[in-house]
Amino acid sequence: MAFYTPLRYPGGKGKLAPFIQDIYTANNLSDGTYVEPYAGGAAVALKLLLEGYAWNIVINDIDKRVYSFWWCVLNNTEGLCQQIRDCRVDMETWHQQKEIYTNFKNYSVEEVGFATFFLNRTNRSGILCGGVIGGKNQTGNYKIDARFNKSDLISRIQLIAKYKCRIKLYNKDALQLVQELNPNFDDKTLVYFDPPYYVKGKMLYQNFYTPEDHSALAQFIKGSKHPWIVTYDNIEEIKKLYEDINNVEFDISYYANKERPRGKEIMFFNNIKIPCIPYTRKIDFIKNAV
């Protein structure tokens, strides 16, 4: 399966893309708008756009640093690519980019965008607040440049930039964004909510949610009349928030730990039908449909 995003993200939601493509086909959503209020690496959004399922996409991230990277992809494409070509992928550069990332308010959007990208590609599992691949002494089995194939990453960025007129980028609170855009949604708009994990969000993301945040989001989503999907860690607190909403339980690999466990997750959906899943589509992680 082709991956188009230049970013690595814990959670592995890009593996859901073939399933969501099937949802597009089954619900006649082709050539519509796909919205990711929690874009992060935007793996699903980019696959839908670049493979001709969605006509345009809306990506949003409240983290100014992640937003800065996507701004550079769309508005400073060649500058970003040149930075990637010229950079040394070593610990000296890592410390420099860590300083920029940590004190991002003191730097330009171009500097912050590149720093975010550099740390994402050189940190374990792409966790921006995590440790460097191979450790600071570079004694691990993999070194800092293990996930930094310059030519491949530049090609991905250049390809995305070719579609920039069909990509809208925002830096807003997710709930605020969908409240503002909701009047413009139509029957061919699919919104995919992938909020921070309820249990491990604080460990994985810069912008994690409190239980009250999760509850406020659930109340808004359940009141929406447009097609939507929500994915979460599969726990009782979340099931209570989305009680009586159609759901699919599944396993998905995520790589935030060395053991590479399979995380139990759940997808809630409304105003769409879930298609039959042929084994040839290689999405056999679906366990139960309700």
From TrEMBL:
Q: Which reaction does it catalyse?
A: a 2'-deoxyadenosine in DNA + S-adenosyl-L-methionine = an N(6)-methyl-2'-deoxyadenosine in DNA + S-adenosyl-L-homocysteine + H(+)
Q: Which GO terms describe its molecular function?
A: S-adenosyl-L-methionine binding; sequence-specific DNA binding; site-specific DNA-methyltransferase (adenine-specific) activity
The record's Gene3D superfamilies line, in alphabetical order, gives: Adenine-specific Methyltransferase, Domain 2, Vaccinia Virus protein VP39
EC number(s): the record gives 2.1.1.72
Q: Name one GO biological process term.
A: mismatch repair
Q: Which UniProt keywords apply?
A: Methyltransferase, S-adenosyl-L-methionine, Transferase
> What's the domain of life for this entry?
Bacteria
The family this protein is said to belong to: Belongs to the N(4)/N(6)-methyltransferase family.
Protein name, entry field: site-specific DNA-methyltransferase (adenine-specific)
Q: Which organism is this entry from?
A: uncultured Desulfovibrio sp
Organism phylogeny: Bacteria, Pseudomonadati, Thermodesulfobacteriota, Desulfovibrionia, Desulfovibrionales
